[in-house]
Design goal:
Structural class: alpha+beta
Oligomer: single chain
Largest sheet: 9 strands, mixed
Distance between the termini: 35 Å
Shape: globular
Length: about 725
């Protein structure tokens, strides 16, 4: 239950006491609670019943209450005092400092007990209350859930403008409504709540400390300033001390109106505390695998990046509570750290969080769902630090890091290597020293996943090492800020597109890369530079193909856990064969194959797939590495400048961009069975003059690039992009 405790620290689910509410349960046991609170001056009683076969021992109690009640002074269960300490308004989590014996917090099977809250002042029977009780070693909980009327509605998500957060509310045609109370929670990074406005009129002005407040008195102006006329829509504006974190999942509001009406912006799991729902494991069908025990156990993933926050919860330990950061190799200093790995930039930690975060995802009441924030929460971690706190490094640093991974693959059991990095190509793929190091890793049996780069959406923008035909190159899609609605999902605007200079289709696949939630220490360079995207605790929202590559690296680990005998070519084949293409209303491709590859990754189907032989056809990596043969892909350029795949109809692309609100990513699109991904043909100079194969002069290097002796050419993590 430790994850539940953490998640509840910032959980906020206010309700109107006058509404009918009920406690529910999750898991195998049963618990219920009375459908209303009982008020007796300073005392508020709530009855809980244990319908299970085992004792239920209270582990934690989350409570919010009206400011008029003043402090919470005592807590009793069945008349026994279990907590005595003054807690100031207007919310508290009690998960330690219990009074008396542990059995005083027990509810026996088949029994009911009254949970009594005692306040300093008479309790406001018409105010806003929240209660969530969690029990030890059990998924059971008792909670008061909101039950707002349908006479008032609001937008699903707020909008953001600097320090301002706006939420549009609509009254029904029946009557004018007047705001009587408001409960608000927000990220600590926003600072204090300074003002509240309705349709531009200031209705409340008072500095309320983070991260929660209830406003039920002290309104500013006239009462009619808080009214919304029948059938009208009004904008509620919250103004904060600092720039507001642009994460809808980090805010909760409950507005109470006269006549018992209310409207709620429902909190996402854990609100702005550590335990959250990152959504992308569900979007790619990995969450269900977690429930089946496919979680990366027994597989080690390496990543060449800015390092890892070794003390980060969800990173240091796996889902079983075991230490799993095996080593961090500093390729810049050529040192090894097995005790206290660090980051400094934050990019590497965020990437690792997407791959491996072992925090349990929670439902809207903070209850663990059995799934995790990361794609592969039980993998072991080998971190390679090749970039400084500014995200800068050199070819030599990265190559040294890759060599460390190859040299130690057996010692640490490394099966997957993530490269969320990019640089502009300087030469053909086979002449690039970094790509040569990666080919050696692939030949050694390591699945290498690389980001396409953030320089899209134009053609031929895929960077190094994403231009290497052997590895898996990943572009980014976004859920368009509606994680529960896949119909408006789309390709991210920054995602780099193919083909490569050598005529290969890239990227092979896309994955979630828009505004992904991940762990990042707030003192690192990136969150200090982009403060509004950090929640003030441990989570940071970031977009990029770096994040998308991390998703696919996690999926590769799941595939290898299910079948450790697979080769890198096999893993690549299964990822491609099971991807889902974005299609329009006519079932045709919504995006070019050079933009979305085979489509979005599908973890569940990739894990169960038996496909083989559909990747890297016609390529001989040993001959390529030895300089005997090099390869060209099947992409050609027509006289009009459009791209096409030799022998394949319907896959042409003129380089134009597709606009629209979103498309369904469907399994219904059938790729031609005659087309093998990454099919290669022997490269020869004579081929450049055949049937339009010659690229326009802007796509080829006039002379061979001479690499510096020390390989000091710059390499960097992918450039920052705005949330998409």
């Amino acid at each position: 239950m430790s994850n539940l405790k953490v998640g509840m620290r910032r959980l906020w689910i206010p309700i109107l006491a006058a509404l009918s509410v009920a406690a529910t349960s999750s898991g195998e046991c049963l618990v219920s609670a009375s459908d209303s609170l009982v008020f007796d001056r300073k005392k508020v009683d709530w009855t809980i019943t244990n319908h299970g076969d085992d004792d239920l021992t209270i582990e934690s109690v989350f409570l919010s209450w009206p400011g008029a009640n003043k402090e919470l002074e005592k807590l009793r269960l069945g008349g026994k005092e279990i907590f005595k300490h003054k807690r100031h308004p207007t919310s508290t989590l009690i998960d330690s400092g219990w009074k008396g014996h542990r059995h005083d917090r027990e509810i026996e099977p088949g029994e009911s007990a009254v949970l009594r809250f005692e306040f300093k002042m008479d309790a406001d029977a018409d105010g806003l209350y929240t209660i969530h009780v969690a029990f030890e070693e059990s998924d059971c909980s008792a909670r008061l859930a909101p039950a707002c009327n349908a006479n008032v509605s609001a937008e699903e998500h707020p909008s953001f403008d600097g320090k301002k957060v706006d939420w549009r509310i609509t009254s029904s045609e029946g009557a004018t409504i007047r705001l009587e109370s408001a409960s608000v929670s927000w990220p600590d990074a926003n600072g204090k709540l300074t003002k509240v406005k309705l349709e531009g009129k200031e209705i409340f002005k008072h500095h309320r400390d983070p991260y929660f407040t209830t406003i039920d008195s002290g309104w500013k102006g006239h009462g009619h300033d808080r009214e919304i006329d029948a059938g009208q829509t009004a904008e509620l504006r919250l103004e904060f001390q600092h720039t507001a974190l642009q994460s809808p999942a980090s805010y909760s509001l409950l507005l109470g109106f006269a006549d018992g009406q209310c409207v709620e912006l429902k909190p996402e799991p854990g609100n702005n505390g550590p335990a959250r729902d990152s959504y992308f494991p569900t979007l790619i069908a990995a969450a269900g695998l977690h429930l089946e025990g496919i979680d990366g156990h027994g597989v080690t993933v390496a990543a060449v990046d800015t390092g890892v926050w070794g003390k980060g919860k969800g990173l240091k330990k796996n889902a079983h509570g075991q230490d799993r950061i095996l080593v961090q190799y500093d390729a810049i200093a050529d040192t090894v750290d097995t005790h206290n790995p660090k980051d400094g930039n934050g990019h590497g930690t965020h990437v690792w969080s997407i791959i491996a975060n072992s925090r349990e995802s929670t439902d809207p009441w903070g209850l663990p769902m059995g799934t995790y924030n990361g794609v592969a929460p039980n993998v072991d971690i080998v971190s390679v630090k090749a970039f400084d706190k500014h995200g800068l490094g050199t070819y030599a640093d990265v190559i040294r890091g890759i060599e460390f991974v190859v040299d130690h693959k057996d010692a640490y059991g490394i099966r997957v290597l993530n490269l969320s990095i990019s640089a502009e190509p300087r030469s053909h793929y086979w002449d690039d020293p970094l790509n040569q190091a990666i080919m050696a890793a692939w030949e050694a049996g390591i699945v290498v996943v690389a980001s396409a780069g953030n320089n899209g959406p134009d053609p031929m923008t895929v960077g190094v090492p994403g231009n290497l035909p052997y590895l898996i190159t990943v572009g980014a899609m976004t859920d368009n800020f509606t994680p529960g609605d896949t119909s408006d999902d789309r390709l991210s605007t920054f995602s780099a597109a193919g083909p490569t200079v050598e005529g290969f289709v890239k990227p092979e696949i896309v994955a979630p890369g828009g505004h992904l939630l991940g762990i990042m220490e707030k003192g690192d360079h990136i969150p200090k530079t982009y403060k509004k995207f950090h929640d003030g605790y441990e989570y940071f929202v970031m977009s990029g193909t770096s994040q998308a590559a991390a998703v696919v690296s996690g999926v590769a680990a799941l595939i290898l856990q299910a079948d450790p005998t697979l080769t890198p070519d096999d893993v690549k084949c299964r990822l491609i064969a099971t991807a889902r293409a974005a299609v329009d209303d006519d079932g045709e491709l919504a995006y070019s194959i050079f933009q979305q590859g085979a489509g979005i990754v599908n973890a569940a189907e990739a894990v169960t797939s038996a496909e083989s032989g559909c990747a890297n056809g016609g390529l001989d990596i040993a001959s390529d590495l030895n300089g005997v043969d090099h390869y060209a892909g099947p992409v050609r350029e027509a006289e009009d400048g459009s791209f096409y795949i030799e022998g394949q109809d319907g896959l042409e692309w003129d380089g134009s961009l597709v606009s629209g609100d979103g498309y369904l990513w469907s399994t219904g699109y059938l790729w031609s069975t005659g087309y093998l991904w990454s099919t290669g043909y022997l490269w020869s100079t004579a081929d450049l003059d055949v049937d339009g194969y010659l690229w326009s002069t802007g796509y080829l290097w006039s002379t061979g690039y001479l690499w510096s002796t020390g390989l000091t050419e710059p390499m960097a993590i992918n450039a920052w992009v705005e949330q998409d």
